[in-house]
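If you are new to this repository, start here. Below is one unmodified record pulled from the training split, so you can see the exact layout before writing a loader.
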Amino acid sequence: MKIIEELLGNAPQLIMYDLDGTLVDSAPDLAIAIDKMLTDLNLPIAGDEKTRLWVGNGIPSLVKRALADDFMGDQADVVDQETFNKAYERFEHHYAIEVGQHSHVYLGIQAFLEAAHSRGIKQAIVTNKSELFTEKLLKLMNIDHYFELYLGGDTLSEKKPHPMPLLHAMQHFGTDTSNSLMIGDSSNDVKAAKAASVKVIGLPYGYNHGQPIATANPDLVVESLDKLL
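And here is the target side for that same chain:
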């Protein structure tokens, strides 16, 4: 943890993590559910590669992007509400079955979470994934016990890149920007951390809409979390 201590200037008391593309490669589950949703609507399937590009802004955005077959599909007036409502229902139905079935925890994650836990560092999930699926995925991956708080994209009135979830987590644990850290794989994580004045570490193996995480200018990029031990 010496690198983190040098980054913060002192020992960390709280580490906040994104989930999809940071701790867990969950894109296979999402892609299968998206393709089944599209099939139900008699639309061409999207596949794993496209789905990975669309992940990161929550399920509503993912569904709209899939319906439009376009990253900008979640913008206003691209997808009509009736179509979205039907698609969203079908996605939730399929994802409830597929979640965690084809996912895996990235290499180095388990060791890092255990090390942070053994040092008494508080750990929280700050994701744009819905709270229900967040909790289910963490339990299926057998890493839920490391976290005292889950904040999903529907937990609060705002989600990343808004700073509210990070500020809420720090308030919950009684920490501040000098001893709190965000770890994620996307520009949403970096933007939220910077807006909350929190140091942020980027991981290069995630989704981030196909762009290198370094382009988002996190405070540090590491190949995997176990490199920080």
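Two things worth knowing about this chain: Residues 27-98 form a domain with the DNA polymerase; domain 1 fold (CATH 1.10.150.240). The chain has a mean pLDDT of 97.
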